[in-house]
Amino acid sequence: MHVYYLITFLVALLASFTLTPFVRQLSIKNKWLDKPGQRKMNKKPVPTAGGIAIYLGFVLAIAFFMFKKTFAGDLNKFVGFLGGGLIIVLSGIQDDIKGLTPRRKLFYQIMAASIASIFGYVIFKVSGPFGGAFHLTELLSMVITIFWIVGITNAVNLLDGLDGLASGVVAIIAVTLFFAALKSASPVVALLSIAVVGSSLGFLPHNFYPARIFMGDTGSMFLGFGLALISIEGAHKGSTLITLFIPIIAMGVPVVDTFLSILRRLVKGNGVFRADKEHIHHKLVFLNGSQRDAVLRLYFLTACFGLIAVSFTGMRGIWSLFALIATAILTLRWVVNHGFLDFVEHEKGQVSQRGKLSEQEVKSSSEGHQDIRLPAFMKESK
User: What is the pLDDT of residues 174-210, one digit of tens each?
Assistant: First the structure.
């Protein structure tokens, strides 16, 4: 069985790595470019829609095993993954080329999530920490499933703000889910996870700072969609409430960033779908002066979340609850210590210590780092 995982990883890795330059040339030829803007970090147009290579790498890696006897009973899961993923990719390409309204993008995400649920990716019960389970009604199950898939898809989409960030973080998360699947004897989950790892890492050399191509919404939404389905399938193999939290912990960075984004926009009275430049990765660039440094820090943090998540595999009872509470407290402490909740103080007219730097001081501190930009809360509103 382990040779299957190795083959899947290598095929996804090599296919994604090899196809990315061709997608880059296609993007340049057709002028599929991500142009500089107020909320973007790139200072010049960069080819986008690199997620096409990520998706194709994943498809090539999975296609061979779809018809192997070992996975014959799980054909529906592969079809649902690839079919829903195709809708995500096609809508992502359209968004990268022409742009989609948030509502139209949400419509396609719900459509993809619905297709995935039809093929078996459904949250149908919630297990208790001490045994027993609460079975959901068909309607409630569908609503929670779609909410989960759309939520994780957009969490990764929001994370894609620095060169190499989303592809590297997703690869680390998928590695976590892969090892969790091995511990719980879930071959399909392990196969899907390692395919995501390979396709993400194959794209990363082309995308790491300074990026030669962006994955665009094509890639970030597909990777988020993939993580959502893998986490649902993995949760089916567990028997306690803690199983549902393993993927949430592993995806700590995008989940926390998404939660803070929603809270920040509600506090400031902005629309939840209104893009800004105050995500965790933007603030880390501001504090540390370098995209590369910010990305590596978030890689390390994601790896820490991943180790915690894997350690939870098989845990149950009162100790699992204590571990969850401790993880939540440590995460909150990290968020507060790094000033990621400072937007609440700014909104109240208070200025935190981190916000007292003058613009001149910020400019002087960024010498030698041409990739730094002031976050939105340091700029005067027009």
Answer: 998 898 888 877 888 899 999 999 999 999 999 998 8
Angle at alpha carbon of residue 133, lines to 309 and 143, rounded to 5°: 80
Query: Contact, 233 vs 145, CB < 8 A?
Result: no
Q: Where are the alpha helices (DSSP H) in 268-317?
A: 280-288, 291-311
Say how far apart CA 220 and CA 226 lie, in whole Å: 10
pLDDT tens digits for range 61-83 = 998 777 666 666 678 888 899 99
Q: Which class for 40: exposed (0-12), middle (13-18), buried (19 or more C-beta within 10 A)? A: middle
Q: Is 125 helix (H, G, I), strand (E, B) or coil?
A: strand
Question: For residue 365, what are its two tokens?
Answer: 């501190």
**Angstrom distance (rounded) from CA 313 to CA 309:** 7
Among all chains, which residue has been given the structure tokens 């892969």?
Answer: 178
* Torsion angle (degrees, nearest 10) of CA 91, 95, 98, 99: 130
> pLDDT tens, 250-271?
877 888 887 777 777 777 766 6
